[in-house]
Each structure stands twice: as structure tokens, then as C-alpha cells.
Design a protein that fits this description.
It holds the Pfam family META. Keywords: Signal. It comes from Acinetobacter wuhouensis. By secondary structure, the protein is α+β, with helices and mostly antiparallel strands. The chain has one domain: Lipocalin (Beta Barrel), CATH 2.40.128.270. Helices cover about 30% and strands about 35% of the residues. The chain is built from 3 helices and 10 strands, in the order H-H-E-E-E-E-E-E-E-H-E-E-E. Strands 1, 2, 3, 4, 5, 6, 7, 8, 9 and 10 form a 10-stranded antiparallel sheet that branches.
């Protein structure tokens, strides 16, 4: 009887400890989501390469995540729009639509930016910084609040 009671106690304690360590903090997730949404994020890095915004450019790469799960922004030339989904720290960008303008000086940047967006699988947001991450947790894009 004593062995059964001790075994049951150990199993119960193990389950409680495991549940506490694997249950995401819903308050933290809500705070992260509040920081992510409804801000105008301006690009600062593509991968490891720092991006310096051109003050004379008509559009610099940026992104906005709405609370209606719509995403919009600019690739430096064209406007982007689409939908996204969030689950914990994972983010899925749906098929993004774009205008079809020709911008002679920024077409290479626009291509790199779009390619990076296609790799996004996760995000980290803190203070005034947003990092969009690939499936391995590597930064593909980084932004600051405008």
C-alpha cells in the first residue's frame, strides 16, 4: 500500500512539474502579440546584412501585422498584402499579393526581401525590435518600430 502511494505521488509530481515547464505563458504570448500587431515595422536587417533606409526613397521595406490577421507592407518598391496566422511563437504568412511596379534602383532589394519573407516560420518581438525567423530559428529579417 505504501509503495503504491509513493509511486502515485512521484508520478503525479512528475506530471505537474512537466506540465508547468511545457505550458506556455499565455500572458507573455498576449504581450508578444500586442507588440507585434498594429505597429509599422521598418526593416533594419536582411539576414546578417544591415539595411540602411534611404531617406530619399519613396518606399523602404516595412511590414504591419493587423489585429485582423492581415499583413501589409512594402518591399521597397511594391506594396504587399496578405494574411497571417499565429500559434505561440510560430507565424505563417499566407500567399502575399503585391502591386507590379518597376523600380529601377530597388528591384534587387525587393527580390531579396520577398525571398526572405517566404522563409519566415517564427518571430521574436521585444521592446521596439521584431525578428522574423526561419524554421531553424535563424533571423531572416529584423525590424524596428518606425
Amino acid at each position: 500500500m505504501l509503495k503504491t502511494l509513493i509511486s502515485t505521488s512521484i508520478v503525479t509530481a512528475s506530471l505537474l512539474i512537466t506540465a508547468c515547464t511545457t505550458t506556455p505563458n499565455s500572458d507573455q504570448q498576449a504581450q508578444n502579440l500586442a507588440l507585434l500587431q498594429n505597429n509599422n515595422w521598418e526593416l533594419t536587417y536582411i539576414g546578417a546584412t544591415e539595411f540602411k533606409a534611404d531617406p530619399n526613397a519613396r518606399n523602404n521595406p516595412s511590414i504591419q501585422f493587423g489585429s485582423d490577421l492581415r499583413v501589409s507592407g512594402s518591399d521597397g518598391c511594391n506594396r504587399l498584402m496578405g494574411q497571417y496566422a499565429i500559434k505561440g511563437q510560430h507565424i505563417t504568412l499566407g500567399q502575399l499579393g503585391a502591386t507590379n511596379m518597376f523600380c529601377q534602383n530597388t528591384m534587387q532589394l525587393a527580390g531579396q526581401y520577398t525571398e526572405a519573407l517566404n522563409k519566415v516560420k517564427g518571430y521574436q518581438v521585444y521592446d521596439k525590435t521584431l525578428k522574423l525567423l526561419d524554421q531553424h530559428g535563424n533571423r531572416v529579417l529584423e525590424y524596428k518600430i518606425k
